[in-house]
Design brief:
298 residues, alpha/beta, 6-stranded mixed sheet, 4-stranded antiparallel sheet
C-alpha cells in the first residue's frame, strides 16, 4: 500500500478478530474506508457493528489482526497516543445518550477540546462554529434536560464534530427519533460528509436510510447557502455497504448491488425494515430514485 497520505485509507481493518469471554464478536474482518468515502455498516442486532466501531476508535483492542487509522496502526499505541487520535482525527456519535447532564450545551461541546489542552479562544471559536452548524446557536446555556430529543442528538453530533475531525463514526444516530427529527440528523450527516469532506462509517439497521444518504448531496450556493438535493448520477457521493452476520462480512459492495443482492443476511434485514414509508414524505419508497428537491438548510 502506498505510504502517501492521499493514498492511505481513512480506516483499514486487516483480518481483525475480537471475542467477549471466549465468544467471537468479530471474526477475520477486513475492509477499508477511503478518504472522503461513506461506508454503511449494517446487520441484525448482535452482528458485531458496535464492536467494530469501538475497535476502530481504540476503545477495544483486537485479539488478532491490525487496525490502521490514516496509516497508523492503533493497537500498538499507548493510551496517550490513542487520545491524541480521538481528539484530533476522529469523532463518534454513540447510539446511547452520552451527554453530561450537569453541563450546559456549551460545556458539553467544549469538554473534549478542554481535555486536550486547547486554548480558551480556540475553544470558543470552535464551539460557536459547530453549534451554528447543527442549529443550536443561542442554546449555549441550556442543560440537556431542557432540550428535545432531536436537539440532544444534534448536540451529540456537535460534540463529535468539534474541531472538524477527518473521520466520523456514527452508531445508529437516528435511533428512537421521529421521522422529522431523523431527517434533521441525516441532513447534518450529509453536510458534514460533503461540505467538510469527512470520511464516514455509518452504522444502521434502518435500511431506508442507506439510499437516502447515498442519493443526496450537500453543496454551497453562490450566495454561500448550504443546500441538499438529489445528486446527479455522475456526482453521487462515494459510498459502499458492508453487511455483518455473526461477526463476519457477509456482503461488501455498492448500494445498487446491495439492493439487488439475494444474500440471506440482506433479505433478513429487508424483512425487518418496518419503517412506514406511506406516512413519511421523505421515504415514500426506500429505493425510489426520485428525491426531495434541494432546500435551504436552516
Amino acid at each position: 500500500m502506498s505510504k502517501e497520505t492521499n493514498q492511505t485509507p481513512a480506516i483499514e481493518f486487516r483480518n481483525v478478530s475480537f471475542s467477549f469471554d471466549g465468544k467471537p464478536a468479530l471474526d477475520d474482518v477486513s475492509f477499508h474506508l477511503e478518504r472522503g468515502e461513506m461506508a454503511f455498516l449494517t446487520g441484525i442486532s448482535g452482528s458485531g457493528k458496535s464492536v467494530l466501531l469501538r475497535l476502530a476508535i481504540g476503545l477495544l483492542r483486537p485479539d488478532a489482526g491490525q487496525i490502521f487509522i490514516e496509516g497508523r496502526e492503533i493497537e500498538t499505541l499507548d493510551e496517550t497516543e490513542l487520545l491524541s487520535i480521538r481528539g484530533g482525527l476522529m469523532g463518534i456519535v454513540f447510539q446511547e445518550d452520552s451527554l453530561f447532564s450537569g453541563l450546559t450545551v456549551y460545556e458539553n461541546v467544549a469538554y473534549r477540546p478542554e481535555e486536550h489542552g486547547w486554548d480558551e479562544e480556540k475553544i470558543e471559536q470552535a464551539v460557536r462554529e459547530v453549534l451554528q452548524f447543527v442549529g443550536l446557536e443561542g442554546e449555549e446555556q441550556k442543560l440537556p434536560e431542557e432540550l428535545s430529543g432531536g436537539m440532544k442528538r444534534r448536540l451529540e453530533i456537535a460534540r463529535a464534530l468539534i474541531g472538524w475531525p477527518s473521520i466520523m463514526l456514527y452508531d445508529e444516530p437516528t435511533m428512537s427519533l421521529d421521522p422529522i427529527m431523523a431527517i434533521q440528523v441525516l441532513d447534518l450527516v450529509i453536510r458534514a460528509r460533503d461540505i467538510n469532506h469527512i470520511s464516514s462509517l455509518y452504522v444502521t439497521k434502518k435500511i431506508h436510510e442507506i439510499p437516502h444518504l447515498a442519493g443526496l448531496v450537500a453543496s454551497t450556493s453562490e450566495k454561500g447557502e448550504v443546500v441538499i438535493g438529489a445528486a446527479a448520477l455522475d456526482k453521487l457521493p462515494r459510498t459502499k455497504v458492508i453487511v455483518l452476520e455473526q461477526g463476519r462480512i457477509a456482503f461488501s459492495g455498492t448500494v445498487a448491488e446491495f439492493k439487488e443482492s439475494d444474500e440471506p443476511a440482506i433479505r433478513e434485514l429487508m424483512s425487518l425494515d418496518r419503517h412506514d414509508h406511506s406516512k413519511d414524505p421523505y421515504f415514500i419508497d426506500p429505493w425510489d430514485k426520485r428525491r426531495r428537491p434541494a432546500e435551504k438548510l436552516l
